[in-house]
Amino acid sequence: MTLTFHQIHRDEFNTVLNLFKEAAEKIAKMHIDHWQYWKNPPAEKIKWVQDGIKNNEYFFIKNTSNTTIGMVRILNEDHLYWGDQKDAALYVHSLMVKTEYNGQGIGKTILKSIEEQAKAKSCNYLRLDADSKNPKLCGYYEHLGFNKVGEKVLPISTYNLYQKEIL
After folding, report:
1. 3-class DSSP state of 51
2. Where in the numbering of this chain does the N-acetyltransferase domain appear (predicted)?
3. Is pTM beyond 0.85 here?
4. What is 73-125 written as a DSSP string?
5. Are 81 and 68 in contact (CB under 8 A)?
């Protein structure tokens, strides 16, 4: 499956919030308390998205029909979750695939593409986090070869920190 990454612009902010809300509703139906703040996001989450868009870190994921099927945020540094790090890495946040495209291996394809970007940038790791209250998501990342290397406690939740070595 061929997927393309399209830079998200400021005028697409509401679309980003709607994608987060859709993901929160999907997760709630699974009886998992994860991302529920996106149904009515607090000011710090709104700012987090605005800053990410301003810094060109958010991307829509589109298929060959140019249909938006998901989104992701890719950072070169992640001080909030990871602090200062010596090794070069890319950091993945806000990865979501629209419900109608679940079960098609799209998440895996997106992560593989970001891993290739990291390799091209001579990064040593691909890093991400997952809410510890979402064991299915944590297991998914572990199945894809990510290793849990720590935890980060934030006011909203506790997050498992995962990394995958770029070979």
Report:
1. helix
2. 3-167
3. yes
4. EEES--HHHH-S-SS-EEEEEEEEE-GGGTTSSHHHHHHHHHHHHHHHTT-SE
5. no
For the chain, state the CA radius of gyration.
15
Structure tokens at 36: 């529920």
Token couple for 154: 């934030």
CB 8 within 8 A of CB 59: yes
Q: Closest Cα partner for 5 from 57, 58, 60? A: 60
Q: Does 39 have pLDDT greater than 90?
A: yes
| Confidence grade of residue 102 (pLDDT, cut at 50, 70, 90) | very high
pLDDT in tens, 122-162: 999 999 999 999 999 999 999 999 999 999 999 888 999 99
Which helix or strand (DSSP H or E) is residue 134 part of?
none
Structure tokens of 163?
A: 């990394």
71, burial (CB in 10 Å: exposed 0-12, middle 13-18, buried 19+): buried
H-helix or E-strand spanning residue 37 = none
Task: Determine contact, residues 156/123, Cβ cutoff 8 Å.
Answer: no
CB of 149 within 8 A of CB of 128?
A: no
